[in-house]
Fold this protein.
Amino acid sequence: MDIEIVPGTEVYQEEVKRQENIPYGEPGMGSDDPEFIQDRIKYLYMDYLRNETLVVARDEGRIVGAIGLQKNPYDGSVYWLKYVSVEEAYKNQGIASSMYEEAIKFVQNEGCQIERSSSSPDGRVYLTNVVSRLNERYPGVIKNPPEEEYSPPGAMI
């Protein structure tokens, strides 16, 4: 599994080029295409890629996970973490954790902080504890770290 930082425009161009190789009239354009990245990677929308820097996970060149980062237009010292998404078949393999750490390293190297948006229920279950650990490893980079580690409802504490 390779994890890399790429401009959103590069991912957009890759997807457009891939779709151009589908013969005209053949099934597989847009949402009819089982490989259409926007349908495989939740929250990754082609229309927004030009404003994003992505941390992507690739399996043999194919994107299977992405984190969307966007520089805050009102505060150039902050990157918004817009989403963390991993294709269903690749979940629970530590991919999101690895991408998250790469995002933090990128933001730190830029001399900035990262600000998480509100977490989905999946995000709270899968990533809150990861973010807490990364906050200890990279102090001051995460602008709004979780207050405490997350325990799913009904978990023994």
The chain has a mean pLDDT of 78.
